[in-house]
Amino acid sequence: MRNRAPGEEPIATGGLNLRVEGFGRQRVVPVGAIVRALDRIPDFHLEGLREIVYLPEYARAAAALGQPGLPGSAPKGEFVQEERRIYVYAIDEPRMFFHMLHHEIGHFVFYLVIGSGAKKRWVTQVSPGSSRVTPYAALSASEDFAETYASYLLAPGLLARDFPEKHAYMRDWVFSGRPDTLKERAQRNPGRR
């Protein structure tokens, strides 16, 4: 529900109906800043994502699961594909929160927005053997995609300078909205708000 202040009625936005829940319980990142960050993402990247919810009470359970490949690390959030939800467990500071939020949206885009041809290009041509945007991106092609997605939104100049092939892929295959790069559902509404 775009551009909605607390207490306002939902605004009809066509196919986009994203619920953002629970963030008023924390004091690290203003809710308005979260809404503004989401407003900068193309609608077709969020269509079908049901909810982004802050659940600090589940931080201990998430920490018990750990992060594969990163011993001793506790997840701050996760995208659950079957539920089409992003869960946020901890918000330490704004910069890391926004990176994590965009990273998890990147997972949603990788699995449920871009089409098989665009995904295959990433997995077979762009990601293998390339330099990684962050050390975490080295875990898998999907983590590389999510880290690159977050970097494209948060530091596009650095991505263009240091990883020009990945920047071009994001621009041309992920953010362009070209029907040949999207799954059929996303092709219906590739415009921006």
Kindly report the oligomeric state of this protein.
single chain
Largest sheet: 4 strands, mixed
Please count the beta strands (DSSP E, at least 2 residues each): 4
Class from secondary-structure proportions: alpha/beta
**Rg over C-alpha atoms, rounded to the nearest angstrom:** 16 Å
Number of domains: 1
Mean pLDDT: 86
End-to-end Cα distance, whole Å, is 12 Å
- Strand residue content: 5-15%
The helix content, as a percent range, equals 40-55%
Low-pLDDT parts are 1-14
Strand order of the largest sheet: 1-2-4-3
Element-by-element helix/strand order? EHHEHEEHHHHHH
Total helices: the number is 9
Large-scale geometry: globular
Describe the protein's architecture and organization.
- With 193 residues, this protein is an alpha/beta fold.
- It has one domain (19-187).
- Helices cover 45% and strands 8% of the residues.
- It has helices at 31-39, 43-46, 59-65, 94-112, 116-126, 141-154, 156-162, 164-174, 184-187; strands at 19-21, 51-54, 77-80, 85-88.
- It has a four-stranded mixed beta sheet, covered by helices on one side.
- A hairpin with a 4-residue loop joins strand 3 (77-80) and strand 4.
- Helix 4 packs across helix 6 (141-154) and helix 7 (156-162) packs across helix 8 (164-174).
